[in-house]
What does this fold into?
Amino acid sequence: MKKIVKAKINGILIRAEEGTTILEAAKKVQVKIPTLCKHPDLKPSASCGLCIVRIKGSNKMLRACCTPLDEGMDIITHDPEIVDIRRTVLELILSNHPNDCLKCDRNNDCELQKLVADFGIRQSPFTQVLRDLPIDNSTKAVELEPQKCILCGRCVDVCQNGQDVWALSFLERGMQTRISPAGDILLADSPCVRCGQCSAHCPTGAIVEQDDIGKVWEALLDPEKYCVVQIAPAVRASIGEAFGLTGKNMTKQLYALLRRLGFKAVFDTNFAADVTIMEEASEFEERLIKGTKPLPLITSCCPAWVDFMEKFHSDMIEHFSSCKSPHEILGVLSKTYYAQKNSIDPAKITMVSIMPCTAKKYEITRSNEMSASGFQDIDIVLSTRELARMIKQAGIDFLSLPDEEADSMLGEYAGAGVIFGATGGVMEAALRTAYYFVTGTELGKVEFESVRGLKGVKETEIEVAGKKIRIAIAHGLENVEQVLTKVREAKNNNQELPYHFIEVMACPGGCVGGGGQPYMVTDELRLKRAKVLYQDDTNKQIRCSHQNPYVKRLYTEFLEKPLGPKSEKLLHTKYNSRPIYKR
Amino acid sequence: MDKKIVLLKDTSIGAADKTKEYYSLILNLLRDQNLQDSVQVVRVADIGFYDQGLVLKILPGQVTYGRVQESDLLPVITETIQGNKVLDRLALEPNEKQLRIVLRNCGQIDPENFDDYIAADGYAALKKVITEYKPEQVIEQLKASGLRGRGGAGYPTWMKWNFARQVKAEQKYIVCNGDEGDPGAYMDRSVLEGDPHSVIEGMMIGAYAIGASQGYFYIRAEYPLAVERIQKAIAQAYEYGLLGKNILGTDFSFDVEIRLGAGAFVCGEETALLASIEGKRGTPQPRPPYPSIKGLWGKPTVINNVETLANIPVILLKGGAWFGKIGTEKSKGTKVFALTGKIKNSGLIEVPMGTTIRDIVYHIGGGMLASKGIKAVQTGGPSGGVIPKEFLDEPVDYENLQKLGSIMGSGGMIVMDEDDCLVDIAKFYLKFCVEESCGKCAPCRIGGFQMLSLLENITSGKGTASDLAKMRRIALAMQKASLCGLGQTASNPVLSTLKYFAAEYKSHIEDKKCVAGKCRYLLNYQIIPEKCKKCGLCLTNCVFGAITGNREQGYILDPAKCTKCGRCYEVCKFKAINKG
Amino acid sequence: MIKLTKENFDQHKTGIPAVGKNWIKVGMSTCGIAAGADEVYKTFVEEAKKKNLTVDIKKCGCLGMCYAEPLVEVHVEGVPQVIYGKVNKDIAIKILEKHVGTKMLVNDYIFDLSLTMKKVGK
It folds into this structure.
């Protein structure tokens, strides 16, 4: 157990575990110390200088974000001098930030704007100095506008340390300091995997998701278009936050909402997740039983992970499931199966995906396989954050909407499909079906508690038909390396494989913590969102993908069988080694 | 009688140097005494005394006379040179203002010759320490010595070492900070170039005390010779078994590598330096944890400045108590300064702590360069401040300099005269910090920049009274809210000039005048008709068309067109152009 | 190369040959080199050879009197040891001819700071 230290904050006695920062401790006694650079999700960078406090009687000021509470400390968080210095710092930051609030993506949802309002800053005493730096929207996923950057360092931290991608870094120094890929190249030419964690952590509008709302409105208003939509598992668990509601499953309101927005059919990515499981579990069965391809099998439904693998770990391509990601599967099925069954010209279908993700925006054009239907399978991807804005634009009182159901054929899902949105969920769903495929019997208990939770790498062993199956689940790209290193070492030394099956999600927590999700995510919030998905699973009558009657129907009426020729053509893709830096 | 030598130099200030006249006089007198063959008279360039009139020094014997008059010359010859009698009324006390501990070997030994260092007692302290002392005893000696970090902050070295020693860790590091970067300061370069082994030895003693097995020299790449000499010295130490495994046959093992700094000033800051060694962007990190607890790659790390380490072997050899007797109550030992500016003898000096600024300027520095009076002394580089001439008799030590609004810093000392504009000086130092800010924290990055623009306004005649208040406000925010020492102290030159030279700021802002004549945009040029000889040189040299007229009617300067380049002022042979 | 040990260290030290009777040290740190010490050093070496003078030409670090670089310190038996400053090629030759050759000090270039600096003794 950790030592407890006793201290005072603004005269209030506090006991906290040793190592607790002054900032965290203050929160416990209802004192909010302002900060712009500290994100509860990240290590302190100590760059903004707003969280300064003082020890009573001392002239020196300390940063609350990174100074641990020490025994006997008597801390003052607010006094006239401290507040005045904070105001000066804020005014200084403002002097280096454009006054574009009204036209900014983050208007009304910006940490800097909020602080400026809190401090009641009415005028700028310092000359405004802005840098003329170009906007980088090369990735199709995120947009970098360095002029709005306050150099808090959050994006660089998540990109380098959290995601191990190292696309973003600081360039130059002093007032010339800016964030950019090393060598001043475009993000698209950098190692960037489009995970969007940078945008999810940015306090201002310096990095935002590429806004595709306009394209959706345009399609919806075009009488020639037949607009259909799908929502990813994790979106339902987080969209409520944009309207002040946390930990609430918004699936049915979302269906209603999307219809009101004008979509002709509302589908659920969860259905496609069930299809993914049919394919992926079959792949696993083949590799395990027939040894057609080497084990371990590695999941591929996360496009940022796919991009990362192609750039950094292309020696693992043979281990990759060739199965496309669920929303791509739903896309191709909507323009083939659904179009045929309902006699709709697939050329007229506009498929919109609502995703917790920014990488999906890039995924839809990443290779020819993403147009397996003969058309681009997904036309537009909106992130959760964009959908929230769209709801507000449409003037719909989202929280009061009545429940509605998804459209049939591509809407009904098993419990397995919805847990895709949490780390370990794909693995759990796959195991439920793989078990059945390998043994021919259904699982008694379908829950695999050991694959749930937020531990960076989760390892477990389960028995399938007398055989021990070792699995690993990694989320947050920084955790990938250690898992793959074990696989490589075993392969190089001809040892027994450490794992049979590996799930990787690029974002910490899986899609619930996706780069396109509402701001200010913390582990606490990730768990809350995941809980919504697991609850949805528990509430379902049908828990396993292979039991979903609509999935069965899809195979009987259209695809024939998993890994069959039609499935291979429509639902599977290929991978290529890609250069980390494009020239 | 042995052959005698008379060295002479006229040290008068403000008058023509009459060394040559005296030289002839003495020669004549010697000839009269028929001593011309047994006494050599030598004119010297510097005799080590200043403002003492004619100074004579008779060798051998070192008898030195000051304020020698013509009438004294004969008695000096007959009584001292011939009679070996010292004339007390003329005798000067030795001007022993300098004490060389750090620079003990600089200029004495060949830095590339290992045996030269050994012969100068090199590595004797190391041998003593690793064969006779326990680590705690080394730290005790350091504690007794009172040695404080010479990098600028003056943190007691023994405490740093003790923290690191007390942490249990399999790996510890010691780092020598050779990223000297204050403008005009080069003490560390000189030590690394002139006596590299002493720094290595100091580092090894530190390593032994804290339990480190690996050391790093972090030296800026702009010091190629220092790097080369340290490289050679390290190679020699390995050859002789003074680095590597089982040094001198004991259990102590230690390895050293060199890392080059790429020229960022901020990398002199401990945490930024460590980041740079680790191969990361050199930006400061929040403390705690302090490097002594969690430093390089998360391991306990002691970072000592070059000069600090060069002190160590002497302290261990002669004992901490001996060192503790030198200096003032809280500042022990000596300090090396790079003395520059408007001073005759610019260069490196080493003085005991507590030496007065006056002694440094007048008795070591040889006084002011030109006939202009001293205005202030700047210490501590861009983190320091100016000390006006009223405080010339203040002793130099950590506490006292701080009390005066400056700091010891790493040892830059710049002497300024009436031609120096203190607003301009403040601007110079602030500009340095603004350019060297790593850009990480907002108060330093933007605060420094904004303050500099205000100063630029003031020095170009656009300043307003509210600018000073704004500057103070920014300065406070930078001091209290910057992450590292660079930002926290960047405003010091501004604050100290505001404190002591408020009138200069005022005249820049209110009268739009720069008394020192430094701030170009505040200067006004005028042609004085009475002095003008109508030569037309100013007209031909003014490329901006600000001067009009002809040889008959004379010339007029149009202030509206004048860019204050000063060309006309420079070329006028008749001083007919007024600048002010 | 012998490895030094605690046993043989002192022996090695006493075995270091004493410095020659006559020597010239040239300050060869950055400040000296910037002021032309390289050429001065070369001149001493070449001219001493040409003139057949028995004098060791050595390099050393910075003496501190940077305003007077290049600095050389000259020790010739029977003549007081002095430091010459602002030495160039011509003065170097003069020092060899006069100071080393005829044991007479050279006018105008001596920087005699022997009474201003204490060194820590052994």
